Amino acid sequence: MTSSILLPDTKEYRKAHKQYLKATKNRPKDIDHDWTPFRAAEKKFKARFPPPDLSSVLDLACLRDNSQLGYWKGSPDAVEFVQIPLKTEDGRKAYTIPQIPGTPHLFADQPKFKHPPGLIVLPSFVSEQKQRDLVKWSLAEHAKQPNDTNLDIHYVLPKEGLWNAWLKARDNPEQDALVLPKALVSEVVEKPSSGPRQLVNNEPASPETFDTISTTPKPPPPPSSTIQPTPVSSLIYKMRWANIGWFYHWGTKQYDFSKGPGTIDDELRSVCHEAVRSVQWKDVHGPSSADWGPNGPDWETWDETYECDAGIVNFYQEKDTLMAHVDRSEVCATSPLVSISLGNAAVFLIGSLTRDTEPIPILLRSGDAVIMSGPSCRRAYHGVPRILEGSLPPHLKSSAFEDDALAREWQPYEEYLSTTRINVNVRQVFPKGFDPFAKRSP
Ligand SMILES: O=C(O)CCC(=O)C(=O)O
Ligand SMILES: [Fe+2]
């Protein structure tokens, strides 16, 4: 599996151009007339041809030495941002997108320009060594039972985890076993459906809706009846997510608290806590007049009350996208969400409480952390329309290792990462002190 960037003046580019002209010949002129601004941005960055122009994408890495950044570059001037001081005085930096001065945080009259306060970008926050540790952790330690992955629904996965089975199969192709569909062993199977996928519109979680949410039935999803036995070597590229902490039930888009809290890896937890504690929150939320709900702002206490307890590891192959969505299943609606990028770079879009705001495009590279915090940013639409092919940084290649044995050990990770982006997305479901199992009066 190789990744290639379409460079102008090449045979591949001319071929893609011809295919594009053929495919778009009969496309109606007003195809985009009913797209929301968010949808229009998704389409723009998703397009394979012509490859997207990233000059409107905020690329904070360009503020440093940009000789190592590779083919895909955005611009450091694409969007207005401000640097905020970090408590850690080690050269790392943090940036936030300011509100338009003198205006409340959301406007009905001019939705185009309104972005919620609370977004922090921390370029290269995670050290190169920690990035490698987190990649290994995601694949070899985390993406296996008891943590669910998207593939567990449909396949009887190897007990050691798909990645570890793949490491063996790579060394010895005879061990590239066929993984069997669950439908062969399950009594309940999904009936094939020809209609569009059902959209689940979940109610935002809150302490008030918690009891209803926790008693909503959460049946296990039925395995597909049409899936075929698949070798480990190709299934590894179909892994899309692995659950962290409290178990998420995709059918209802609610957490299934009956399964218990799950675990959070110590190293991951410490990266998230370090990120949250290093920000001077008064510089971010102090000037804002946002509505924090009946108990008022809680950012003043995040140093003590932030506690990550759930999340997801997303695995993106080059053509995968994550459509505009809001993460609103967490009872804690304001506490920071920490999102760590690893592997290939991506375009991340962040809008506002509706899809009608033109989103800000931000180029995220391996090691960058993003924090979404506060009442409006935590409920803002966001998505990932584009993985930037061929953007694996040098420190995630085995040539970065001087030691031969270490280089050899990293080889399978480099091979997988050459077409992959990993995002570790960590949240706080419960405000500190909220006991999900306490008896509440009806
Ligand atoms: O991949 C990313 O950067 C964002 C992922 C995300 O929004 C999510 O997991 O909810
Ligand atoms: Fe999200």
From TrEMBL:
Gene3D superfamilies: Alpha-ketoglutarate-dependent dioxygenase AlkB-like
Keywords: Dioxygenase, Iron, Metal-binding, Oxidoreductase
GO terms for MF: dioxygenase activity; metal ion binding
Binding-site residues, Fe cation: 325, 327, 382
Listed GO CC annotations: cytoplasm; nucleus
Ranges for region Disordered: 190-229
Cofactor: Fe(2+)
Membrane recorded as keyword: no
Residue ranges of domain Fe2OG dioxygenase in the record: 304-430
Entry's cofactor comment: Binds 1 Fe(2+) ion per subunit.
Record keyword Iron present: yes
PANTHER family named in the record: ALKYLATED DNA REPAIR PROTEIN ALKB-RELATED, NUCLEIC ACID DIOXYGENASE ALKBH1
The protein's name in its UniProt record: Fe2OG dioxygenase domain-containing protein
